[in-house]
Design goal:
The complex is a heterodimer of chains A (243) and B (187).
Chain A lengths: L3 H13 L4 H13 L1 H18 L9 H10 L29 H21 L11 E9 L4 E8 L4 E5 L9 E8 L7 E6 L5 E3 L12 E8 L12 E9 L2
Antiparallel strand pairs in A: 1-2, 1-8, 2-3, 3-6, 4-5, 4-7, 7-8
Chain B lengths: L10 H12 L3 H23 L2 H18 L10 H18 L3 H7 L12 H7 L5 H7 L3 H13 L3 H8 L3 H19 L1
Helix pairs in contact in B: 1-2, 2-3, 2-4, 3-4, 7-10, 9-10
The chains are: A alpha+beta (243), B mainly alpha (187).
Chain lengths: 243, 187
């Protein structure tokens, strides 16, 4: 059994290009299916690429671009929406998004504003007596459009309210996650075949707090096999105090 | 000097160009080429030593960048690290497969290289603002040099052992210790 340190050093050695034979094969195996190793490798690549940036610049021969251009596929690639793409390779897994403040922050700001507007303006299903949300999270899509709302009610229950249709390819489901503890990582709070109102399974979790993150990913039928998000993130947002 | 390069692209503009490549815009690939190709040829030259092979390597790297642009995820790292990893991996594959034998013979013994790509120059060019430089400086000079040479020229443990005439096991544990102190310093 490898310690975390062993693993991190193996990731460093692989990122350096030091490994050959069996050791290289072991690293490649981990790179194919070990989330922790993938994240470690990405971090080392990020650090070591600073050395690449010091390489002496060499002006390319004028013919180089011509050759590249000639070898490119002739027709523009069709636009494929991210969410209809086939199962992502392990390297594309987006678990690390949860740890990336930079990724969340802009959406969080927009989401706060949108939350105020939407919570005030939309006739949401929670407008019944006693069901006023105390927290609202507006989940924003990649294009910064509000895609769904998570309402957290005074009694601790939480519900997902989609704001529009969410295309779900055959064989895939929507999985809703929340993160209140970075150490524990994201926890699944619901699965849905299609965009519909959904009570989220938050009873077993600590009470939802302001700024807590919610996101929806596309996962194989039955939900993520690893218990962690593996598919593309469709939308995400932080909870904010409702007016 | 190189910081003021007018063609230097920001992370944001590179990430944006990759997103446009993913949508099939060849213009965006050209934009990446204009800002990154010279450094990429430099990266490939460190490993391959030959200009013609380095250009071939960069050629392949650009096709791959275009093909794989939709898998670039800005949340997982900078576009530059992603691009440089592609060209470096391509160079390593070339040197370790197709052309290994003739290239290995061309290598000067470690420490005797007199080209501009020496580790101390690379150290000087590392950004003072980033921790990598500071952390490399905490290593003993000879360890730092070996680590940088290994990285720049894409050497394996075995190749380093051969060059400095030390047993493989010793080289491995030596580098491991260097990486451990780097890891601790960078944490």
């Amino acid at each position: 059994m490898m310690t975390r340190e062993d693993k991190d050093i193996l990731a460093a050695e692989y990122a350096m290009g030091l490994l050959a034979g069996e050791e290289a094969a072991q690293a490649e195996q981990l790179l194919a299916d070990d989330e922790e190793f993938i994240a470690m490798h990405v971090r080392w690549r990020e650090r070591l690429s600073e050395i690449d940036a010091t390489a002496t610049k060499v002006t390319p021969d004028a013919a180089l671009w011509t050759r590249i251009e000639a070898a490119l596929p002739r027709a523009a690639k069709p636009q494929i929406a991210k969410m209809s793409s086939p199962l992502p390779s392990p390297l594309l897994r987006l678990k690390d998004l949860w740890d990336s403040l930079g990724f969340w922050r802009p959406a969080g700001l927009v989401a706060t504003m949108a939350a105020l507007v939407l919570a005030a303006g939309l006739g949401l299903s929670v407008r019944e007596v006693g069901r006023q949300p105390v927290l609202v999270a507006v989940l924003m899509t990649e294009n910064n459009q509000p895609g769904a709302i998570v309402n957290v009610l005074a009694d601790g229950r939480a519900e997902l309210v989609p704001l529009g249709d969410i295309p779900v390819p055959a064989g895939r489901v929507l999985q809703i996650w929340t993160l209140w503890d970075r150490v524990r990582g994201p926890v699944s709070v619901g699965l849905a075949q299609s965009a519909r109102r959904l009570d989220l399974e938050v009873k077993a979790l600590p009470r939802t707090t302001a700024t807590q993150l919610f996101e929806i990913t596309l996962e194989p039928e039955g939900g993520s096999p690893t218990g962690r998000p593996t598919g593309p993130v469709l939308m995400k947002g932080n909870a904010t105090t409702a007016l | 000097m190189e910081q003021q390069d007018p063609t230097a692209a920001t992370d944001t503009s590179l990430a944006d160009a990759l997103a446009r490549c993913a949508r099939g815009e060849q213009q965006a690939l050209r934009q990446i080429y204009d800002s990154e190709a010279p450094t990429m040829i430099g990266i490939a030259m460190r490993v391959l030593r030959r200009r013609d092979m380095a250009e071939e390597c960069v050629h392949d790297a650009f096709l791959r960048i275009y093909q794989k642009a939709d898998s670039f995820d800005p949340a997982r790292g900078s576009p530059r690290a992603w691009i440089y990893t592609i060209v470096r991996n391509r160079a390593l594959n070339i040197v370790r497969g197709e052309a290994r034998t003739d290239l290995v013979d061309d290598f000067e013994p470690i420490g005797l290289t007199d080209d501009s790509e020496n580790p101390e120059d690379a150290m000087l060019r590392l950004s003072d603002a980033r921790s990598l430089k500071r952390c490399l400086e905490t290593l003993a000079p000879v360890r730092r040099k070996i680590l940088l040479l290994a990285y720049m020229h894409g050497l394996t443990h075995g190749e380093i052992a051969g060059k400095i005439g030390m047993p493989l096991g010793t080289v491995k544990s030596w580098i491991r210790r260097s990486l451990l102190s780097l890891r601790e310093c960078l944490a």
